[in-house]
Specification:
Homodimer. One of its GO terms (molecular function) is UDP-glucose 4-epimerase activity. Its cofactor is NAD(+). Keywords: Carbohydrate metabolism, Galactose metabolism, Isomerase, NAD. One of its GO terms (biological process) is galactose catabolic process via UDP-galactose, Leloir pathway. The chain is 38% helix and 16% strand. It is an alpha/beta fold. Strands 3-2-1-4-5-6-11 form a 7-stranded parallel β-sheet, with helices on both faces. Helix 5 packs parallel to helix 6, helix 7 crosses helix 11 and helix 9 packs across helix 11. The longest helix is centred in the first third of the chain and has 21 residues. It starts with 5 loop residues before the first strand and ends in a 21-residue tail after the last helix. The relative contact order is 0.17.
Length: 362
């Protein structure tokens, strides 16, 4: 058993959070998960994604429907559980929505983190893995992007909230040496658990490429809208570093291991494959491995989007002992399995689940 016993996962019912919970349970950790269902399917009855994580692993998750903006509620959860480390996923995350509703993003992402850090400190919990993003780099000055690449020239509000939180963590760890934090800068998570039981089920119209693509392949949407085909790239579409969500989950378990064994203060790692793939390329691969046809409709670029970015993940390999294992073909195949097994995503009603509800006063 690891020395860390109980891990609190914020945003645990979400896409990346639920896949990470599977890896944590399989690694022998006890998981307490919270979610307010801003980005995930579920409600007072519980989370279908976490119920399926339990099904995959044969282990149980303690779940609370909770909101980080409700500080007494979070304090109450920490009172009930001796949390050794927090993995903090909970955030609003749609680039397009963030440009339309900046105050919502600042309130949710920044205040939520402030509340969490204050409650952690009051409970003598100083270990955290923070879910950051490659958006903190802005338009890259050079490629591939290493962790020493300048941050701060950010093209969208969502990315700015991640940047501000990173700066907050920098100041905090400098002022209080007890803190032991790893910030993981994700590139572009795609795919699903190979079982097909859990995957990405967007709850908003602001959706990522792969769910949109799969909906078109299923015939639920007429065309895939591609934002921009006039970028300075070989085929004119934007280039990203797509990473399988299970590789991403493994990165968090590797980060926990490092925090368990060392006092790092604050460390930052890129999590990506190190390979750039264009939107057109990933559509071509998806069509090939799923034997479907995806009509494309090119429209103008979105405000806040960038041309190309991919990671140099050497540091994560050297210090976390982590590398990616899944190919682009496997990312598409696994997502398609999830989508065909669950064409309407998670069940939205009649969920039978045990859920603990706390209101801060219990």
């Amino acid at each position: 058993m690891p020395r860390f016993k109980t891990i609190l996962v914020t945003g645990g019912a979400g896409y990346i959070g639920s896949h990470c919970v599977v890896d944590l349970l399989e690694a022998g950790y006890e998981v307490v998960a919270i979610d307010n269902f801003a980005n995930a399917v579920g409600g007072d009855e519980g989370s279908p994604a976490l119920q399926r994580a339990e099904q995959i692993t044969g282990k149980t998750v303690t779940f609370y429907k909770a909101d980080l903006l409700d500080k007494p509620q979070i304090n109450d959860i920490f009172d009930k559980h001796q949390v050794n480390c927090v993995i903090h996923f909970a955030a609003l995350k749609a680039v397009g929505e963030s440009m339309q509703q900046p105050l919502l993003y600042y309130q949710n992402n920044l205040l939520g983190m402030l509340n969490l850090l204050e409650v952690m400190r009051s409970h003598n919990c100083y270990q955290m893995v923070f879910s950051s993003s490659c958006t903190v780099y802005g338009e890259p000055e050079n490629l591939p992007i290493t962790e020493t690449h300048p941050t701060g020239k950010i093209t969208n509000v969502y990315g700015r909230t991640k940047y501000f939180i990173e700066e907050m963590l920098k100041d905090l760890s400098a002022a209080e040496k007890k803190w032991n934090i790893i910030s993981l800068r994700y590139f572009n998570p795609v795919g699903a658990h190979p079982s097909g039981l859990i995957g990405e089920d967007p709850t908003k119209e602001f959706t990522n490429l792969m769910p949109f693509m799969a909906q078109v392949a299923l015939g639920k949407k007429p065309v895939l809208t591609v934002f921009g085909n006039d970028y300075n790239t070989p085929d004119g579409t934007g280039i990203r570093d797509y990473i399988h969500v299970m590789d991403l989950a493994a990165g968090h378990v590797a980060a926990l291991k490092l925090l368990n064994e060392n006092h790092v203060g604050l460390k930052v790692y890129n999590l990506g494959t190190g390979r750039g793939v264009s939107v057109k390329e990933i559509v071509d691969v998806f069509e090939r491995v799923t034997n479907t046809k995806i009509p494309l409709k090119y429209v103008s670029r979105r405000l806040g989007d960038i041309t190309a970015m991919w990671a140099d993940a050497t540091l994560a390999k050297e210090e976390l002992g982590w590398t990616t294992k899944y190919t682009i073909e496997e990312m598409c195949t696994d997502f398609w399995r999830w989508q065909t097994m669950n064409p309407d995503g998670y069940p939205k009603k009649n969920m039978k689940a045990k859920v603990v509800i706390t209101n801060g006063n219990s």
